[in-house]
């Protein structure tokens, strides 16, 4: 299962899965209704959402942020207004998934004047502002409108943290595709293959599966595995090297993010020991998920396993240098987080990575990362954890 095949043979085997259904118009409407309630609860009159993951979440527009303001202004009563450059109208209408009034600005005009006018039309009041909106945009908004603003994390997170069945299906598709790509990648390994060749294969494999390439990719061999996000430069695979690959893809905006660590050859007793502790810690984090408990309790469960085996404590090395996991959805990293200090209560629909990586400084690292979602009774895996250090 590790080595023995070729890039050409593995690419030829891959084919797209049956696609999960897109987010429906009714679901977009339900998202806006929830956002209206949360905005009203914080005492604001409207929610301003800038281009990025949250605009895609509420309006289906998959655009990234730029220096030109593109945003949705959602009043607590009434229909949403989309603020957008005039020359982007055709592209916006092609992507927009909700009924909305368009208020368009020319290049020599201020988009913030349109926001001020819309708020005046609704009788004024506080604007709850998307926390992802840039400092520059928020500063201009305050300066040019004079309107009171509040930071809207409670609204954005209060909606996006809890995934619907449709979102879970899209995430499942992305994660299943990446798991298949991981297995194919392990089979193409050979003496002398470079990290660049592996990265290019993963990109091609995700595309063959129907994704638009990688959402990201990290490939590390040998000593480089001791650094959670790798080292610069090209590495060459040799017999008995550890291999750490962390990658994902997008399906209709929802992302996967899976890490596998395995041996190309024969593992040392120390590598086997650390790999087994990592697997035990990952399993303990999974078992600790319980509705109503704080997110930090999952991190504590993983670290208790490390301390039992003489690693750590806390962030000391050898041990786990970072949090046990992060939320995931339309962004690779999003609230809530499985880390000490995050007291957000676990609830159905929340989705997390589970990756209590163990680093042995200057020698090697082991990261096993799968993703799980919270149900009424327990956690469930999107993908089954890796079986052993010498097989996926």
Automatic annotation (TrEMBL):
Q: Which residues form the Creatinase N-terminal domain?
A: 31-161
Report the residue ranges that make up the Peptidase M24 domain in this protein. 170-376
GO terms of biological process kind: proteolysis
* GO MF annotation terms: metal ion binding; metallopeptidase activity
The UniProt keywords, alphabetically, are: Hydrolase, Metal-binding, Metalloprotease, Protease
Which Gene3D superfamilies does the UniProt record give? Answer: Creatinase/methionine aminopeptidase superfamily, Creatinase/prolidase N-terminal domain
Task: Note whether Hydrolase occurs among the keywords.
Answer: yes
Q: Does the keyword Zinc-finger apply?
A: no
Which Pfam families does the annotation name? Creatinase_N (PF01321), Peptidase_M24 (PF00557)
InterPro entries registered for this protein in UniProt: Creatin/AminoP/Spt16_N, Creatinase/aminopeptidase-like, Creatinase_N, Pept_M24, Peptidase_M24B, Peptidase_M24B_aminopep-P_CS
* PANTHER family to which the protein is assigned, alphabetical: AMINOPEPTIDASE, AMINOPEPTIDASE YPDF
* Family affiliation: Belongs to the peptidase M24B family.
Stated name of the protein: X-Pro dipeptidase
Q: Which organism is it from?
A: Asticcacaulis endophyticus
């Amino acid at each position: 299962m590790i080595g023995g095949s070729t890039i050409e043979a593995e690419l030829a085997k891959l084919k797209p899965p049956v696609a999960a259904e897109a987010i429906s118009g009714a679901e977009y409407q339900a998202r806006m209704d929830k956002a209206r309630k949360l905005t009203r609860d914080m005492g604001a009159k409207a929610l301003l959402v800038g281009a990025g993951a949250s605009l895609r979440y509420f309006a289906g527009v998959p655009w990234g942020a730029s220096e030109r303001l593109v945003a949705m202004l959602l009043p607590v009563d009434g229909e949403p207004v989309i603020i957008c450059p005039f020359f982007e109208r055709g592209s916006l209408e092609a992507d927009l998934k909700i009924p909305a009034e368009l208020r368009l600005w020319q290049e020599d005009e201020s988009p913030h004047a349109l926001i001020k006018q819309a708020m005046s039309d609704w009788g004024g009041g506080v604007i709850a502002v998307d926390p992802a909106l840039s400092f520059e945009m928020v500063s201009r908004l305050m300066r040019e409108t004079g309107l009171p603003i509040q930071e809207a994390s409670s609204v954005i997170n209060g909606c996006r943290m809890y995934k619907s069945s449709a979102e879970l299906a899209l995430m499942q598709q992305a994660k299943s595709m990446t798991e298949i790509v991981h297995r194919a990648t392990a089979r193409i390994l050979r003496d002398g293959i470079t990290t660049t060749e592996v990265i290019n294969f993963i990109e091609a494999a995700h595309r063959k599966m129907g994704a638009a390439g990688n959402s990201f990719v990290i490939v590390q061999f040998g000593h480089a595995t001791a650094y959670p996000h790798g080292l610069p430069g090209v590495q060459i695979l040799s017999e008995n090297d550890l291999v750490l690959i962390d990658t994902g893809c997008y399906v209709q905006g929802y992302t996967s993010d899976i890490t596998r660590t395995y041996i190309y050859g024969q593992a040392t007793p120390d590598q086997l020991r650390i790999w087994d502790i990592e697997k035990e810690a990952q399993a303990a984090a999974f078992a600790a998920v319980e509705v109503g408990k704080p997110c930090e309790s999952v991190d504590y469960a993983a670290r208790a396993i490390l301390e039992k085996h003489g690693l750590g404590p806390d962030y000391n090395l050898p041990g786990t240098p970072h949090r046990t996991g992060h939320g995931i959805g339309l962004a690779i990293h999003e609230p809530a987080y499985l880390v000490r200090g995050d007291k957000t209560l676990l609830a159905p629909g929340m989705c997390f990575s589970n990756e209590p990586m163990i680093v042995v400084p200057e020698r090697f690292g082991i990261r096993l990362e799968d993703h799980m979602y919270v149900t009424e009774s327990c956690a469930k895996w999107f993908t089954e954890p890796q079986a052993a250090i010498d097989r996926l």
